[in-house]
Design goal:
The protein is of the alpha+beta class. It has four domains: 1-47; 99-128 and 325-348, OB fold (Dihydrolipoamide Acetyltransferase, E2P); 134-313; 355-408 and 420-469, Efflux pump adaptor protein, beta barrel domain (Elongation Factor Tu (Ef-tu), domain 3). Helix content is 53%, strand content 18%. It is built from eight helices and 14 strands. The longest helix has 58 residues, at 170-227.
Length: 470
Amino acid sequence: MQSNWTPEQKSGSANEISARASVISIENRIKPSARLAEPEVEVATPVQPRRPLPTKRIIKYSVGAILLAIAAFAGTQWFQYLTTHEETDDAYITGHLHQVSSRIDGTVEKVLVDDNQHVKQGQVLVTLDPNDYQVKVDQALASLEEAQRQAKTAQSSVSYQDTDAQGQKMNASGSVANAVASIANSEATVREARANILNAESQLKAKQAELDRASLDYTRYNSLAKEGAVKLIERDAAKRDYLVAQENRNAARDSVTQANEKMQEAEQSVNTSKAQLTQAQAQIQLAKASAVQVQVDQAKLSTDLATIDKAKAALDEAKLNLSYTRIVAPVSGRVGKKTVEEGHRVQPGEPLLAITSDDPWVVANYKETQLAKIQIGQKVEIRIDALPDHKFEGRVLSFSPASGASFAVLPSDNATGNFTKIVQRLPVKILFTAESVKGYEDRLAPGLSVISSVDLTSKPSMVGTLAEAN
């Protein structure tokens, strides 16, 4: 029969047989009688070798050890992350939403943008039919030219009448001029007197108020002095203040009387000057007529000049309304909620479309227990649910002045007997960094859900934020 032993097993068996034979030889030497009586031959039995571990079990143990090491490493990293970051998924993107409307009524001629289109500040979005407003501009321009021609004619008439009056009667013209100047001076005196009356009446009211106060103080101190509550010197001081206030009131009253008298004198001077003018005009009827005509033409010239100013204002208004037929973007951003179409009749203030600005930010509602180590300017990792393959970065800009519950329509009232403490959330404003949003500017839409994580170990800084870049 063929042996199934390996060479190592055979070698081990031979050695064992040799060892046993040596033992038997020694025993035979010690006990010859036993050897002679019955020789004992011992057959060597093969020794079963140790079976090696199966390969699958080795692989299983190795994989288990590797997975355990990976789990330990990941757990260490996750624990370190939790101790150096504050994270919340109660966050979203927001931004400025600008409602665009018309400032005038009109018919839409062209709509130059579409939903979701990016526009620049000042870019034309919608044009209204300008014909009606162009006609108004032309009318205002014609009115201005007409007023300018009339003013020019009035100016020529004034010059002619004045020259004619001077040529006919220099003396009469001089008398009229003196009378007119006297009237002007007298009227100025009247205006000054009226102002003095108002000032004097104001002073009288003030002095009367001081007198009333001093009278009350004196009455009160006099009563207290009789009761011995105040010193007589204090009562005397109050009496002195009362008498001084009474004299000031009387002086103010006299000032009012004097101002009225000066007013009457000024009015009388005006009447006198007018009488002198009438007398001078009566002396020479032609000079009077010429002077009157000059005044009439001057008044007409003033009216025409005022008409020119009015026509200029009307022209400016018409041009301004014409410019409103071009509705432009107030800011740079993306168009949304467009309801305007060509041919629509729009009214002032009617919403036509909305523009979301190019400076979105994140509002993250952190628990009040997470805010202890968060500082303005710290680095924030932003993960947007709509863009899971890209990690955005930001910086903490500011904290809300109140919790979200405080701004609610029906804020909670904690002054009740069954109060239960609830961890509040405080909105934190986070700005994107300009570098992290490159290529994704049109994807950052207000309202998108966000997971924000503040790196508590980062150095506060606002350099490179999106708002700073804009």
